[in-house]
Design brief:
Shape: globular
Number of strands: 14
Number of domains: 2
CATH architecture of the largest domain: 3-Layer(aba) Sandwich
Low-confidence stretches: none
CATH class of the largest domain: Alpha Beta
Structural class: alpha/beta
Order of helices and strands: EHEEEHEHEHEHEEHEHEHEHEHEHHH
CATH topology of the largest domain: Rossmann fold
Radius of gyration: 21 Å
Helix content: 40-55%
Mean pLDDT: 95
Strand order of the largest sheet: 3-4-2-1-5-6-7-8
Largest sheet: 8 strands, mixed
Length: 366
């Protein structure tokens, strides 16, 4: 088959920086047996083309990206016809994919992977904050031939909108993240890790306030925070305000190779997001035997209570209590880690590619 994938980015020509690792894992697997063309809306500011993990990347760049992306898909279709057009993320990606597929009389598939279905007005986030976004999603998603989403909470959000979707988690490459058996803690000092860009959606203030509760309770711990800072040092200021300087280290961005040993040395991954379809880092943590404690979003809500520990969104006291409970009960921590690892292995990158290939064949047959 010849497949067109529409993505916002995550396919940088370096293969290491400004990438979405699970997206690259999916593309690489599909490219083994299919002709894959990825249309990235703005990986770079200037339009260009390159090869990556066996696929052809068409970078659309600045200036009317929606219209030019549709035109690029149609031009490539004239060279050799596509069989399916798929959007990874909705919003502009789904609009382009469905419009192009409709004009070419091809089946279209939309994968919900972000905040397309939420409206978090207080932080200016979500595809449903404005009437134009709500209208676009209502029209586009109803015109798509199939909708998929990474986790059951997103499936339920679609169900409430009267849309049927299939759960297809974006799995991790086991070659990059070979499983490690969950290990017992070897020291009194608890090693915590948080992996996410510092931004409003990830809600690091809730995380840091939970850590302040732990510090006041006398828990000995270290928290490594991995991710780019988009808040101009605001979280570093909050660390100082809360007196957490000796507990928290900001490590900045890490490549997958750099992240893995840091993750494997942790006892618990802690996430505090207001919204997630994943988080995908939870799967990476699970593969190296590290369980997740976090707010009840995406996979965290889906896997709790057997394979993760979830608390209400924004509940820093509840988050602190959950961390204390899991660290105080080693049997529970290891049980969460084992269950999470099993799920991450079963639903790895190979599973994701097979699930999408099945959908492609069904759409083409129909």
């Amino acid at each position: 088959m010849k497949l067109a994938l529409v993505v916002p980015g995550g396919v940088d020509r370096t293969g290491e920086f400004r990438v979405i690792p699970v997206l690259l894992a999916l593309i690489e697997r599909l490219a083994r047996t299919h002709d894959i063309h990825v249309f990235a809306l703005r990986q770079e500011a200037t339009a260009d083309q390159w090869n990556l993990v066996g696929a052809t990347i068409h970078n659309i760049g600045d200036g009317w990206p929606r219209l030019r992306a549709i035109a690029a898909i149609r031009a490539e279709h004239r060279r050799a016809p596509f069989d399916v057009v798929q959007a990874i993320f909705s919003g502009s990606c789904s609009l382009i994919a469905v419009a192009a597929a409709t004009s070419l009389r091809l089946p279209s598939l939309v994968h919900i992977a972000g905040g397309e279905l939420v409206a978090l007005h207080e932080i200016g986030y979500g595809g449903r904050r404005k009437w134009k976004g709500r209208l676009r999603e209502a029209v586009v998603l109803r015109r798509a031939n199939a909708i998929t989403a990474a986790s059951e909470p997103i499936i339920e959000s679609l169900r409430r909108l009267g849309l049927k979707a299939q759960r297809v988690p974006l799995g991790v490459d086991l070659g990059t993240w070979p499983p490690l058996a969950p290990r017992r803690r070897s020291a009194n000092l608890a090693r915590l890790i948080h992996v996410a860009s510092l931004n409003r959606v990830k809600d690091q203030p809730t995380l840091l306030r939970a850590l302040a509760v732990l510090a006041r309770a006398g828990l000995e711990f270290e928290m490594d925070v991995v991710g780019c800072d988009t808040l101009q040092g605001e979280m570093d200021g909050l660390v100082q305000q809360l007196g957490l300087e000796r507990y928290v280290r900001f490590l900045g961005f890490k490549t997958q190779r750099e992240l893995r040993p840091i993750m494997a040395s942790a006892d618990v991954l802690v996430m505090s997001s207001l919204h997630e379809a994943g988080p995908l880092v939870m799967l990476e943590a699970a593969l190296v035997g590290v369980p997740t404690i976090g707010t009840a979003v995406g996979h965290i809500a889906e896997w709790s209570p057997s394979a993760a520990s979830a608390v209400p969104v924004g509940d820093y006291a509840g988050l602190a209590n959950a961390i204390q409970r899991v660290l105080a009960d080693e049997a529970l921590r290891l049980r969460l880690a084992e269950k999470a690892q099993h799920r991450a292995i079963v639903e790895d990158a190979d599973y994701t590619a097979r699930a999408f290939e099945t959908l492609y064949r069904q759409l083409c047959a129909a």
